[in-house]
Design brief:
Trna Endonuclease, Chain: A, domain 1, 3 helices, about 35% helix
């Protein structure tokens, strides 16, 4: 694959991901959630969406896939991504005075041409991923 092909593929994947994140945000809002941030970037990583489900702060990873497979959930997030998300979540909580708030990490899988959204709640625990680094 040439450099130009890689560049075009990367741009296409980013566009697809951004579109998927928009669908995920709309889906969460339809459930009564309030989206606080989109594509939040900190020193230690990026969070696709930050939202409130009631009083719980939810860090939402969005995965856009071609074909629906509702059986797949948290396994779509590899160990490196889990750590990056957890570190970014802790940084977000610290930056927004939320250290004492209830928090969790969720996953929205956006699939098929209709962009169906499947929500997987609590796909990773910050304390399990970070161990002693947590809080």
């Amino acid at each position: 694959m040439t450099g130009d092909e890689r560049s075009r593929r990367g741009a296409r994947d980013r566009d697809r991901g951004h579109c998927g994140e928009e669908h995920a945000a709309a889906h969460l809002e339809s459930l009564g959630w309030r989206v606080l941030a989109r594509n939040w970037r900190g020193r230690r990583g990026e969070l696709d969406l930050v939202a409130l489900d009631g009083e719980t702060v939810c860090f939402v990873e969005c995965k856009t896939v071609g074909a629906p497979d509702p059986a797949l959930g948290g396994e779509r997030v590899d160990p490196r991504q889990r750590r990056r998300i957890a570190l970014a979540a802790i940084e977000w909580l610290s930056a927004h005075g939320g250290e004492e708030r209830e928090a969790r990490v969720d996953l929205v899988v956006i699939s098929g041409p209709e962009r169906a959204c499947t929500l997987h709640r609590d796909v990773l625990r910050l304390d399990e991923v970070l161990g002693d680094e947590y809080r």
